[in-house]
Amino acid sequence: MGKRLIQQRRGRGTPRYRSPSHRFKGAVKHLSNAAPATEGMVLDILHCAGHSAPLMAVEYDSGDVNLAFAPAGIRVGDSLKVGGEELNTGNTLLLKDVPEGTFVHNIEGRPGDGGKFVRGSGSFARVVAHTPKGVKVKLPSKKEKLFLGHCRASIGVVSGAGRVDKPMLKAGTNYHRMRARNKLYPRVCGISMNAVDHPFGGGCSHSKGRPTQSPRSAPPGRKVGKIAPRRVGRKR
After folding, report:
1. H/E element holding 126?
2. pLDDT tens-digit readout, 24-43
3. Suppose 198 and one of 59, 123, 127, 193 were both cysteines; which one would form an S-S bond, judging by CB atoms 3.0 to 4.6 Å apart?
């Protein structure tokens, strides 16, 4: 008997898989079609259930109000700039104009996509080197990735560091945290389920699970992992 995939269960639209997106403030992207050296001012610092980091609403000279990640040290009333070469906290520059050793966040994977990398609270990346093929950036995972020079990034460290240091203390707190972003919680291991719910389910309390031992008659390539012994019993 087949089982519905998680994608199919989500498509049904029940409250268990429904995200409260009506409470989200909006998408966080770099200002599109911005003129060179467009200036703006921070109107407010916002909390959004859909993001781990605080957001800031920025009003630009063109009259557009855009959402951006609030870097550490930003205040309401501070002036920001999109474009140019000023390295003030919160400014958005092209990676080719950012000197080596600068902390950046919300980096575009491709020019104009609005930002895809380094968007979590307390995260930052460091510009390592400028090469003829692009700009090498060290990500929070310690991996170095090459970006095109015309990809945009914001200067500074995303605020909200230390969020994961606070303990949840009880499962109910974690339940509401996961529900705010439509994450399935709690997750039950397969060996604790019944046989109808999971391939590892069923059996007695300590004998649950499917044996991982490969059969003795398996062909090469299939006989991997825990291989069946050639003989059993005490050697005499």
Report:
1. strand 125-131
2. 999 999 988 766 778 999 99
3. 193
